[in-house]
């Protein structure tokens, strides 16, 4: 069991900010891989999910693709995440017709009723962190992406 929690921040450009605790006991290899990838904070535009309900999707930038995603085991996998859960999703090239690129994605579920369901059906994903502070304000900003479109998000370590 881990004794020292590791935490990250998720902050929209102009706010708000939420903080999440890594699930080192439930998903140790995935949490450590993503923690290592976040040696420097990363930013990307997030969009709202089409199928999954209250979820925004953050594509892990190439600069943070520092691990072999195919080597990560299935850990703490779910298809019905809770509000505040962060999931890891990797999809290789050509798994889905027409997608000739890999998907390295952190899914951020911000409300009740989320499901990990997409064009290929139910897709169990590893829940590797959970938002432990700032969820209410952060969730309101996430929901805005449904109507206003892309928003810039930065994710980084809290040390």
Verbal overview:
By secondary structure, this protein is an alpha+beta fold. Helices cover 15% and strands 38% of the residues. The chain has two helices and eleven strands. The chain has an eight-stranded antiparallel beta barrel with strand order 1-2-10-6-7-4-3-11. A two-stranded antiparallel sheet has the order 8-9. Strand 1 and strand 2 (17-22) form a beta hairpin. It is globular. The two termini are 20 Å apart. The model has no long low-confidence stretch (mean pLDDT 93).
SSE layout and pairings?
Blueprint: E1 7-12, E2 17-22, H1 28-37, E3 42-48, E4 55-59, E5 77-78, E6 85-91, E7 103-109, E8 117-118, E9 121-122, E10 125-133, H2 135-148, E11 151-158
Antiparallel strand pairs: 1-2, 1-11, 2-10, 3-4, 3-11, 4-7, 5-10, 6-7, 6-10, 8-9
Q: Which terms summarize this structure?
A:
159 residues; alpha+beta; 8-stranded antiparallel β-barrel; two-stranded antiparallel ribbon; 2 helices; 11 strands
Which segments are poorly predicted (pLDDT under 50) over 5 or more consecutive residues? Answer: none
Q: Beta-sheet strand percentage?
A: 35-45%
Q: Could you give the order of strands across the largest sheet?
A: 1-2-10-6-7-4-3-11
Characterize the largest beta sheet: strand count, sense, and whether it forms a barrel: 8 strands, antiparallel, barrel
Short précis:
With 159 residues, the protein is of the alpha+beta class. The protein has helices at 28-37, 135-148, and strands at residues 7-12, 17-22, 42-48, 55-59, 77-78, 85-91, 103-109, 117-118, 121-122, 125-133, 151-158.
């Amino acid at each position: 069991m881990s004794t020292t929690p590791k935490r990250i921040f998720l902050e929209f450009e102009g706010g708000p900010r939420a903080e999440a605790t890594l699930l080192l006991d439930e998903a140790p290899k995935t949490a450590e891989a993503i923690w290592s990838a976040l040696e420097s904070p990363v930013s990307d535009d997030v969009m709202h999910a089409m199928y999954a309900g209250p979820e925004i999707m953050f594509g892990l930038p190439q600069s943070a693709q520092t691990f072999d995603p195919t080597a990560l085991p299935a850990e703490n996998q779910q298809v019905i995440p809770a509000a505040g859960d962060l999931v890891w999703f990797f999809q290789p090239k050509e798994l889905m017709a027409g997608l000739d690129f890999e998907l390295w994605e952190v899914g951020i579920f911000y409300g009740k009723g989320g499901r990990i369901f997409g064009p290929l059906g139910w897709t169990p994903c590893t829940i590797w962190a959970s938002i432990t502070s700032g969820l209410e304000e952060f969730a309101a900003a996430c929901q805005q992406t449904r109507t206003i479109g892309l928003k810039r998000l930065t994710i980084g370590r809290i040390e």
